[in-house]
Amino acid sequence: MAYEAFSYYYDILMQDVPYHKWISKTKQYLPQGSTILDVGCGTGTISILLAKEGYHVTGIDLSEEMLSLAYEKTLTEGLGIHYVQQDMSRLEGFSDFDGAVIYVDSLNYLKNDREVFQTFRHLYESIKEGGILIFDVHSLFKVTEIFQDYLFADTNPDLTYIWHVCEGKYPYSIEHELTFFKREGDRYERFEETHYQRTFAIEEYVQWLEDIGFKILEISADFLDEAPTEESERIIVVAQK
Question: pLDDT, tens digit, for every residue of 22-70?
């Protein structure tokens, strides 16, 4: 999905996200100096943080707008990160990486189980024997309970936005309806975007991974290093080739 105008305000919306928790999870399983595919890298925040920790990072994203911002941020930081525009479910041209990560529920942007399975299969082919795959997804509880008719609004001097989440067309899917008001002098310019996400049961993710050949190393929730409960919101899965 191309983020279009949304890409330019993504970092504002995500400024309170605890990115350090994803970095800590990476460091649990992949030593510094490892080569990593950061799939669904967005504006490059996690790619940049990983590079600063000594990882050799290649960022993958479908959105040209997001990658353009990632590249600009990387240049500003003086880092060397390779960015590639690709659909994660059609990933090609990569091999022998030490690991791959799909963070901040990027996997939930895939439309169906076939695309998720294809993504896992392509990543299996992209990492070396013994390589690590780490990803996180929304739990069923979060999609069916937390996100149902969720409404949030925020404002700052240059941007005001309204974020509404409603039930999607498919099982365990949601639609994010985003309305932005960008300040232009004494007036505001309004624009809207809709984003779709879908998740699946933990058991389904595990089955697809094992069918491909992955071994499950960890299933935890909410960065607590504990097994998921019925009210967990973010599921973290670590698998090994």
Answer: 999 999 999 999 999 999 999 999 999 999 999 999 999 999 989 999 9
The CA angle 114-119-122, to the nearest 5 degrees, is: 120
Q: What is the DSSP letter of 144?
A: I
Tell which residue, 179, 100, 107, has the closest CA to residue 132: 100
In CATH, which of 1.10.3720.10, 3.10.105.10, 3.40.50.150, 3.40.50.720 is domain 4-138+201-240?
3.40.50.150
Cβ-proximal residues to 133 (8 Å cutoff; 6+ apart), any chain: 99, 100, 101, 102, 120, 123, 124, 127, 209, 214, 237, 238, 239, 240, 241
Residues 6+ apart with CB under 8 A from 152: 162, 163, 164
Q: Where are the domains of the chain?
A: 4-138+201-240, 142-197
Whether pLDDT at 11 is above 70: no
pTM for the whole thing?
Answer: 0.93
Q: Packing angle between helix 64-77 and helix 45-52, nearest 10 degrees?
A: 30
Q: Kindly report the CATH class assigned to 142-197.
A: mainly beta
Average pLDDT, the chain: 92
